[in-house]
Amino acid sequence: MSSDSSKKRKPKVIRTDGGLQEGKRGKADADQDVRYYSEECEVDLRDPIKDYELYRETCQELQRLMAEIQELKSRGIKDNASEIDERRIQSCVHFMTLKKLNRLAHIRLKKGRDQTHEAKQKVDAYHLQLQNLLYEVMHLQKEITKCLEFKSKHEEIELVSLEEFYKEAPAEISRPAITLSEPHQQTLARLDWELEQRKRLAEKYKECLTSKEKILKEIEVKKEYLSSLQPRLNSIMQASLPVQEYLFMPFDQAHKQYETARHLPPPLYVLFVQASAYGQACDKKLVVAIEGSVEEAKALYKPPEDSQDDESDSDAEEEQTTKRRRPTLGVQLDDKRKEMLKRHPLSVTVDLKCKDENVLHLTFYYLMNLNVMTVKAKVTTAVEMTTAISAGDLLSPDSLLNCLYPGDHGRKTPNPANQFQFDKVGILTLSDYVTELGHPYVWVQKLGGLHFPKDQPQVCHTSSPPVSPRTSSWALGVTADNSLSASHMELTVKLLRTRLQSRLALHKQFASLGRHISVPWLLLIPTLDSPRAASGGLHGKSPQLEALWAVGDISSLPCSAKLQAAVVLNPGYSTLPPVFSLCLNWKGERTSSNDDNIRAMESEVNVNYKELWGPKPGYQLLTNQLQRLCMVLDVYLETEPHDPSVEGPKEFPQEKMCLRLVRGPMRLKPFKFNYPQGFFSHR
């Protein structure tokens, strides 16, 4: 190949969508010649694999020819020029073959790219169609879901039942022939009937509103009349106060009491209502009143108000608190105890008057945090009573109401929850505070409508059915049972009046016995100590161990015989009789343990006390027992045989008439007195 041909530059071929374009030959030429290669027709007819094998063979042949040309040139023989030219020609032919194969490869590549592009466009078109279809499916599914979840407003309307619909609705609305077989038409018909009914009700509502406005106008007119009437009524009430006082009809005072009662806690309110009702219906001598500060009671219901001054002065308060010393633990506990034992500002007083004008004053309190009621008692006598040494604690407020019901000493709280509250503030027992707060008797809780479970399970009796316990605290709202208070009111009032009368009767007996000539009691002091302190084996002789007890010396005449008597008085005197234990100091010490006759004397007053009861209610039982004790003491001493070793007359001559002096192997004496015959015999 010549050097001129090798130096020629072929024009550039530009590939576009329309095919191959020849590059610009000059700047002036604007048109581009589109060349068409003959190989384009051969691409579809030729096998690419065979072209690849031809390419390999051509490359190998070129390598061989180049190697031969190199070898011939290296020999440097002039005769070899023709051979070199021949091999050059062959090499050029092979180069032409390679160019052709190159063009075929480029054409195949372009066709493959075009086919790939077309296939990609088809795939993109199909993918776009698929996305459109998926979006339409999703949209249709949402619409279906909306349709399925659609709730019509008629579903919220409470329609009349089908039976009532077909019974009351007219035929032109109900259309049974159609609606019975088609639920949709049935629902439409029911809605039409509901609309008709609502139209009627709307008209009726308008009529009612019109009548209501008329009535409201009439009420306003009457209110104006009543508001103008109130001052006149007040002036009339003020003018009638002297008449009310003269006729003992304190209407104004009762009205004020009921206004104050609105601020009582529920237990005190129940007590006030039930006691007032019982006093009006059954006991005219029972007076109920409310005492205390109404303003403090109102303050309990008001929430604490936040003042603006607190915010403005907060910095100053913080500085003051830092300077102050913190309270000690003991002061904090004292404050907590005071808060725990805080009473309600209002209290209820109940005055029980007796026939002899003696009055028992009862003041009931409510402990807000403990949810229990307490009571304080005080006795006012019509005549000033002489204070006898032997009277002791008979009228003491601390012991006057003890054991009004069996076992109710009022020393501990009946609310089981209080013990846990006491543990938090270091209170051991409520008995340390009863002098200040009052006694929390169980009957006091029942009068207030409060019921608490007992410490021990007990059998329910028909006379007192169990009541469900209500032990909510004051802060949470206390509920009190009116029926429980009403069921215990009458019996409790009777027991209180009986207790007052029996204690007053006992007081009079002790006062008279202290100065009586025939019964010279040297010492008789009732206390509230346990009878275990008394000698003579008093244990178990009284149902209540905590009782009044007394010790005294009895002698019929100034002599060597002295009878010492220990007496146990139950708080429920005279329903429960006194119990005597005797010790005779005469020729030695004689008691029930070493002398059968002493035991018989005790039995005469302890066992046969019903003969000594006297007229009901038997308040003179103690005096009668003492009188009988003096009589049997005389019998005991007079029936004793005379000691022949002692000179002179018999110390106790027989004055009592006895049928037999002794009887039986125990040589018992005749202590039974037969009235009105006036003699003594054996039982």
TrEMBL record:
Q: Does the keyword Nucleus apply?
A: yes
Q: Where is the composition biased (Acidic residues)?
A: 306-319
- Please state the protein's primary subcellular location: nucleus
Where is this chain compositionally biased, Basic and acidic residues type? 22-31
Give one Pfam family, short name only. Answer: FmiP_Thoc5
Region (Disordered) spans which residues? 1-31, 299-329
Q: Name one GO molecular function term.
A: mRNA binding
Keywords of this entry: Nucleus
Could you tell me the Gene Ontology terms of the biological process aspect for this record?
mRNA export from nucleus
Recorded GO cellular component terms are: THO complex part of transcription export complex
State whether keyword Acyltransferase applies. no
Compartment(s) where it occurs, according to its Swiss-Prot or TrEMBL record: Nucleus
Which domain of life does this protein belong to? Eukaryota
Which family is annotated?
Belongs to the THOC5 family.
Q: What protein name applies here?
A: THO complex subunit 5
